[in-house]
Design brief:
Layout (H helix, E strand, L loop, with lengths): L12 E7 L2 E10 L3 H9 L1 H7 L2 E4 L6 E6 L2 E11 L3 E8 L4 E11 L2 E11 L2 H22 L9 H17 L2 E3 L4 E5 L2 E10 L3 H9 L1 H7 L2 E5 L11 E6 L2 E11 L3 E8 L6 E10 L2 E12 L3 H19 L6 H14 L1 E3 L1
Parallel strand pairs: 1-9, 10-18
Antiparallel strand pairs: 1-2, 2-8, 3-4, 4-5, 5-6, 6-7, 7-8, 10-11, 11-17, 12-13, 13-14, 14-15, 15-16, 16-17
Helix pairs in contact: 3-4, 5-6, 7-8
Length: 342
Amino acid sequence: MTDHYDWPHHPIDRVVRQTGRTRGVGLRRRYDTSLEDMWDAWTSPDRLRRWLGEVTGDLAEGGTVTLDMDGEIATCTIIRCDPPHRLVANWSDAEARHTTAQLRLSRDGGRTLVELEHLGFDEALVSRDFGEGWDDFLYRLGQYVGGIDVWSPPWGEVRTALDPYWLPLADRPERDDSWPSVTVDDDRATLAVRRTYPASPHDVWTAMTDPKHLAVWFADVDVNDGDSGADGEGTSWRAVFNHGAASGTIQECAAERALVTTWRWEHEDSGSVLHVALEPAGDGTMVRIVQRDAPADSATGYGAGWYAMLAGLAIHLDGRAPTESDWDADFARARQCLTTIT
């Protein structure tokens, strides 16, 4: 029998963050198993029931599953499944809470790093509850992939053991400013979002202004520079997305530093102004987007959309092509965390 007296001290990183208007929990742990084996442990119903719970439904992108974890029932819609690295799901529980969970797996030498994020909690004690619940299940996962009979104490003992770890985190969460923010004034809004990339300003600028690059991570963009100045001011453009089109005219352009353009969705009566700034950030580049005078009733969608777009740019700069499901997953995560200031 394994000695379980040190159960809460298993090597794990725990965090509670103030994610915009809500809270989120994060857990990181390394396991002595391969990336492929760990992915299978998270996605095979037969293996999931050994350490997490009974799973029924369609465990595939776009599918819906029901998860029974020791009598706690959750319904999950899978919005991104990228084997063997990423799984994102909208999560609904019996308390009518609607949250978003993300699993990321990566190789770490001969081991696998598991990073679990769960976003969208309104109360401190709810974030404590979910943090402790996932802490318990990740402990069970370690037993399972380690070939040990899966065991954990009754829930009351779990809470007693883990409260000293999670209650201080829930009472004093870390502030996470990586999510979009929106300021609403009557019927107009200003939104802001930023992201840092391990790439040079030249490479980031090229990815954000060259139509060939934009077609990979953003949209198909047509540029009409017939009446533009030498610096690009006056250039008109039109971008075609999967669910609509937008157009505008460039007002200011400073290569590798800043771009200002009008922006209007073709289904909207009025437009806004988009400010894009590139700033050195260590060995990388920070992109900051501020959109002014956007329609207030569309501001949440704008903010979450730009967050998802910048996440897609990160995938592109990493040499891969983002999918529509990547955008959907990051849009859902950002909506959970978007800060609105009225």
